[in-house]
Amino acid sequence: MTQTATARTTDTAPRRDYAALSAAFAVGMAALSVAARGRGTAGRAETTELPALALATFGLSRILVHEKVAGWARTPFVAEGVDGRPPRGDGLRRVVGELLTCTRCTGVWVGAGLVGTRILVPPLGHVATAAFAAAGANDLLQAGFTALRRTAGQAGTRVCGTAAAGSNDRHASERR
Description:
The structure is a single chain. This protein is mainly α. The chain has one domain. The chain has helices spanning 3-10, 15-37, 50-66, 71-74, 91-99, 103-120, 122-155, 172-175; strands at residues 158-159, 162-163. The chain has a two-stranded antiparallel sheet. α2 (15-37) crosses α5, α2 packs parallel to α6 and α6 (103-120) packs antiparallel against α7. The longest helix is centred in the C-terminal third of the chain and has 34 residues, at 122-155. The N and C termini lie far apart (48 Å).
């Protein structure tokens, strides 16, 4: 395969498709700004809401990009298999697939959606933000607990009544 053919197969999404996705995002943000303008203070996301929105964005982005429960949303755009999760197709389909394999990229859209929901439909926005913030906090706490268990396992100690990884406790594997 020539170098030019290799470049075409690895970068099949033309710039116009990235531009189209960026334009759609910009139009959505402009529409949200216009809709929020007539709502007074109810149309603003307050800075005090930022921690909850950040956790909710983190939690929902991880669900969309990594969890089986959101596989139905990724399937048209991402090929999930033993060789990883490459984007499917060409053009805009591939660009959306790239977006759905990156938590940071998806997070931008999720964050905008959560802010928009909080502005346009405040009760739903508050419930969604709280639920996904709890999911995000849970992810962070689980990662911290796993790291703590790993560290404790290396030291040969017990954490919270659970045998550390690598211990001789015959029930440790049943509790994991």
